[in-house]
Protein 1
Amino acid sequence: MFLRFLAGRARQAEALYILGDLFEVWVGDDIDDPYHNRITAALRAAGDAGLKIFVMHGNRDFALGEQFAAAAGITLLPDPYDLTLPEWSFVLSHGDALCLDDHAYQAYRAKVRDPEWQRKMRAKPRVLRSLLGRYIRWRSARRKRDHRTVYADLQPAATDDFLRDHAYATFIHGHTHRAATHDHFVDGIHVERWVLADWHEDRGEALLWDGETLTRETLLPES
């Protein structure tokens, strides 16, 4: 469904912003993985057709590097990223940095985002990293099947501070698996927060900005 989206609907836009966790796991740009290569090639084809593509690191693909960016023809974005358009201002983020009540995750995030830790990880043999990637994918699939899994949400006070820091721009993020549109009132100013939906085998979703309004667009396997 995502490959069909890249080959069709996405190319009707000027730009596509992917806000992290494009891949379930990424253990180095030098891993030769047919599944990942297919997606990388599809991104390159969409870019070659004129679509500007921007990708942000997520908590699963935090190791995406410049080699991948060059191969895919995309631009890696910092997190957060202020997107100022002629008509409106947005702030984009993966969202995990604001899940401050999940202390175990924040400790993990600080470790894996450390440049020295990433350097040591990339220095490990490719075979070992590939096995690690398979294990992470297996563990993630098992967790998804467990309906008792509860994902942390953004901390309200930290979110309000974040909105202040970014001039009350409309906030778009993912990570929490809780697709919704929230109304925040910060210092008397109404600010919208849009949470991206997960993609599943039977449906996906993209946010569409047409210069006036932001809307959710449902994507189906055969659409």
Protein 2
Amino acid sequence: MRVGILTGGGDCPGLNAVIRAVTLALLHADAATEVWGIQRGFWGLMADRLQPLTAASVRDLLDEGGTVLGTHNRADPFAWQGHDASGQALDCLTRHGIDALVVIGGDGSLTIGDRFSRLGVPMVGVPKTIDNDIEHNERSFGFDSAVAVVAEALTRLKTTAQSHQRVMVLETMGRNAGWIALEGGLAGGADAILIPEQPFDLDRLTARLQARVQEQGHALVCVAEGATLSDGTQFWQTGSGVARLGGIGQALTDALAQRLPGTEVRGTLLGHLQRGGAPTAFDRVLSTRFGVAAAQALRDGAFGHTIALQGDRCVRVPLSAVSGRQRRVPLDDPLSDCARVLGALD
């Protein structure tokens, strides 16, 4: 068997650990298997950019951040630069004799993978997103690493907030799903957590922060980039000609500074710090489990499925069940209830 592996979408801690696990598991099961890495996601199929992966080349990747294969978060062969280049990608697979493909990616990459699967490409998916928002999957690798960064940032911001009696606003990733802000906010002791799934009222937020400042002299706000005001307002940035959710941290900092006279309000944007660096021990183990499960699915011929974590077990879910869908924070989720009981979430 000759297997291709690609990493699509944004980078995150744990990608290299999955590449390592898939490769080592396949080679351990059958030394005659060949594993090829496709560079920069689906772009590599269109550009014919492949590289061999061996046990020696992947063995030390477990704790390395990023992806040695590179990635491209806008390389959709079905809509590439105004035309359908999927045939070009299929030709690449045929030319190199790739018998099966492992797609490691988020909802966008898995949706593309599902389309290729429907065209007859033997395909197994591995869910990747620090946002933790892939349907039918309880935990994505990279998420724990991102939450750890948020929690540490809030812990550090708390000391300066206490010293200067400030309100500190921290903006995290989370366009449509607020898992990072919710879990990171709980781990970092945020006084207010703002997520896309729960629109917030600025007057109520101001009153809550006033109470916290009077009680303890400072306050911490953890806000997801896609958080929404109760009137439906969201904040967008248009750098590089592409509109992206973001900027709510600074907008909220400015608004609170006006509403909290006599209290200094400062904002911090974590941005890509949440994506970078080595994966946590949890993510290294989860990535390894996903990679081994993907290799076994390939050997079993369970194509057209993605691996998912359910009840601490790696299971196989049809790609069609996750394609084009997102797992958002339910308002009755135990974490939401916990934050609400603590007064951090409306």
Protein 3
Amino acid sequence: MTVLTQSPAKPGDAGGPAGGGRRLVDMVLRARELSILGALIVLVVATTIANPRFLSEQGVKDIFLNASILALLAVGQTMVVVTRNIDLSVGSVVGLVAFVSGKYASSGDRNLVLIALVGVAIGLACGLVNGLLVSFCKVPALVVTLGTLYVIQGLDHYIAHGEQIGAADLPSALLSLGNDAVLGIPYLPIITVLVMLVIGFYLRSYSSGREFYAIGSSPEAASLAGVPIRRRVLTAYLVSGGLAGLAGVLWLARFGTVVADAAHGWELKVVSAVVVGGVAIVGGTGTVYGAALGALLLTTIGSVLVVLKVTPFWQDAITGVLLLLAITVDRLLALRVTRVLRARGRKMRRTRDAA
């Protein structure tokens, strides 16, 4: 989509076509997020009618706990995808961080903050490698992150040597982070929501945050406007890697027992959550809130199928259908928005010529 570059008027000018385009895109995004929320509500109500125990206190807690890590990864992935890139290494980073931070935590009475810093530092290092190769070396993101996916997996297995980390080896403070709550709300969803709000506010309210969308909408126009494309793409990968590192620590805290292939295959779940949440795979549009809702929807579908005793095969099948549907809807909406903006531009030109 090129809605940010179709008029010389200032993007914030409500009277110009760019301002109208932004309002139109915002309206479409809100509609996508509301539709996801509506589908989620319908799914929960229908399942509760079929099995009233689905909405028990423990059932709701499990859904939010299970969705927290996926939503956190989806938030980081969103920053990458809006710049027309992708990060397929996040699942491997989670596995590596979960095991390495678990080894570090079990080697002595480690402080919780230090454990988290170790995990985030490993994630940032992985994000830095991805970001440098994509932004400065101009290697396609799909190739880079697919390669680092396998490299990180191999490194994880080399470090693990078939070893398993058990909950009995971990500090009680770390396990409390993954299972305890404040005012009845588990810590993990609180952390995810805080991260989502901070990044969502930054992308929406700061000019540097909006530059990520400008890059995804039209890299050529963004370059002409003076946007530091390489720096922004590198930043996106650093954020994605750092959040994957944090997710690895939370994975360790949540499950306690960790082996070398933790979060194996999660990169596809993360991309699915982002796309289902309304983030355009071609970049330029989408919000972290929609991505988080997409993660919650996919997690809820998995819980529903378990409650209804449906074979796990259907979870993957439904996820695939939702992914195809989301991409199709995104394409149709993009074409619709483009037509509307072109019609508005022609109307304004006719009005200006008549004057």
Protein 4
Amino acid sequence: MELQLRSATWEDYDAVNRIIREGQEEHADALPDRFARLDHVVAMGWYRSFSDQPHKEIIVAEVAGELVGVAMLEMKKSPTYEALVPRSYAYLNELAVSSSYQRQGIGRKLYEASVLWAKEREAVSLELNVWEFNEKALRFYASVGMSTLNRTLTVNLI
């Protein structure tokens, strides 16, 4: 399998949505009160913002001309509260691999490319959110050295 990583183009929009929709469906199955079922999970305006700005990037993974994975990154700054140290960090909005290509090292390659992208922009860290039900993602991120920084807690009121 020859894997190629590259920056996404406009022509990749539908394929990127197809890949991210697979993960969205898993989330909707696990948490239907939180996640909707959508044909286009990535809105065109949001997708466009990643190609229009130097502090955002979409990296896609291709095998034999087929898009099989995607990482969507952006640089962020910490909130300007006196109690927080000012810092710039990279945020990984999406990391997804088509189900038929998972467990072949593609997610790891996308993650490594994301780390490199962040370092090139002098980010002090790479951060992301993952839902507690998503044990597969939790194991993957632990395997690449990520750890839990904080947690969001909730209580249902209705």
